[in-house]
Design goal:
CATH class: Alpha Beta
Organism: Clostridium symbiosum
InterPro entries: AraC_E-bd, GyrI-like, Reg_factor_effector_dom_sf, SmbC-like
Domain AraC effector-binding: 1-145
Structural class: alpha+beta
Oligomer: single chain
Number of helices: 4
Radius of gyration: 15 Å
CATH superfamily: Regulatory factor, effector binding domain
CATH topology: Multidrug-efflux Transporter 1 Regulator Bmrr, Chain A
Strand order of the largest sheet: 1-6-8-7-3-4-2-5
Pfam families: GyrI-like
Distance between the termini: 16 Å
CATH architecture: Alpha-Beta Barrel
Protein name: Bacterial transcription activator, effector binding domain
Strand content: 25-35%
Number of strands: 8
Largest sheet: 8 strands, antiparallel
Length: 145
């Protein structure tokens, strides 16, 4: 785990509203196909997945999930909406990108973050940098106070 400051990050994104799960994975595939079809999926591409709502307190039909490509500092033209990512410090956890390892991360998140000042008003961000994907790794970015 290491700490990283996020500042002025913009993403071009697609949003889905509905129960978290298989639909989120389908949305990620939809974004990746869009990026490939528009020649935007490059060696320096970073994709984010952002669950905006707590599934324990938000009705399934209102759960929002964004997937987007980081466009900060790039001259990219696309027809997707643009939004900012919350600035601030994040604890970055690198996890093997397998269903089992990701599930274990979520299962153990309270223990992993027990000594961190987590900011529960901001969403946890899944980060998929092209360089990490090729190594079968992903990152979870936990917002800090």
């Amino acid at each position: 785990m290491f700490i990283e400051e996020f500042k002025d990050i913009k993403i071009a994104y697609i949003r889905r509203t509905g129960k978290y799960g298989a639909g989120n994975k389908q949305l990620m595939e939809k974004l990746k196909n869009y990026l490939k079809n528009n020649d935007l999926f490059k060696d320096d591409t970073t994709v984010l997945g952002i669950a905006l709502d707590n599934p324990l307190s938000t009705p399934e039909n209102e759960q929002r999930y964004d997937v987007g490509m980081v466009i900060t500092g790039k001259d990219i033209h696309c027809d997707l909406p643009i939004r900012n990512i919350d600035s601030g410090c994040y604890a970055i956890f690198e996890v093997p990108h397998t269903e089992n390892d990701v599930a274990n991360f979520w299962k153990n998140i309270d223990t992993l973050t027990s000594d961190l000042p987590v900011d529960y008003t901001k969403p946890i961000i899944e980060r998929y940098a092209f360089s990490k994907i090729s190594l079968h790794l992903c990152e979870f970015c936990i917002p800090l106070k």
